[in-house]
Amino acid sequence: MNSLLTNTSAMVALQNLRSVNKDLSMVQEQISTGKKVGNARDNAAIFAISTVMQSDVKGFEAISQSLNLGASSVAVARGAAEKVTELLVEMKGLIVAAQEDNVDRTKIQTDVAQLRSQIDSIVNAAQFNGLNFLKGSDSTDFLASLDRDSSNNVTASSISISAQSLETAAGVATAALATTTTGANTARTDAAQLVATGNTFALDLEGTDTQTAGDTYVVQIDGRKFTYEVQTGDDENDVGQALTNAINDAGITGIAVTFTGGDGTTDAQVDIANTSGNTVAIEVNVNDGTGGGLGNLDGLNVATEAGAAAALVSIEGLIQTAVDASAEFGSSQKRIEIQNDFISGLTDSLKTGIGALTDADLEEASARLQSLQVQQQLGIQALSIANQSPNAILGLFR
Which CATH number characterizes residue 210's domain? Predict the structure, then answer.
């Protein structure tokens, strides 16, 4: 039926043309933006997922910068600690030379003092952006990751780097004792006392004294150093057992160590027995944390025979302190680099995932564009033909 008022064919052709134009506009937008999901209207679910992932990418890029800062800071500390180790080894050579009688110990002491000053210079200069890991004992946290769970709760995790003091300032020692198998010390009335009886040395930890967290016990046996830092809640038994275990684990030939616990009133005691028959130098220090890790450098003086002998014992512990610091920084730097590599790879994977969700397939879009353009042209022609239909009614009135 033909009607002047209602042209059904034209209406159908118009609806088809509108649909083609809508699809054509969408494909043109994909080609111009490169995205098939550019906003929430395109696909709300995909848009929400991709936006969260994009925010994670931005966060991980910031984390990478934090890790780069941490790696640089630790690298400076490691290089400085290794240089300090070299200088201490050089200093040991001078100390060994001072053991001879036919040498000018005063001149050797001058060289030792110069090396100590150089170590100070290195320690003071070993900073990156104002952060110096060779001074003090504080720790610094570097942001390492953002961990998102299935409920979209995000928690931050960090890599903590502790300073390894290589300062040469002498600390306050509540007990600093040195002895050999040939003599005995007078009993002390402070937090630690070392009493020699024959070839056995009793490190007495008084039960009535409070162990302060952060204090450091250092036992040196012929230059080998064993350290324990008091933790919160430790008593004399914790300290004594820890030192006993550390010395026994080292397996020093001719040294037998036993521990007898205390009960708060009876003192705990670490017995160090020399069964080698040789003279053994033993030193105990309890440092209250105010001194540097190389604080014993302050007391080295090879100008006398006795001073040279004492310096030979101390230098081994000092070298070990610097070696331990270098190793600690090396391990921390390696860990940061591994984490940074992981973050870089993770960021790339997230970007790839976001692209798979939101990027347009331009090859497909190009082919669809050609098809829709042809459909548009045909739709226009169909609409034109449909609009000519009412003209046929005029023939009826001629």
Answer: 3.30.70
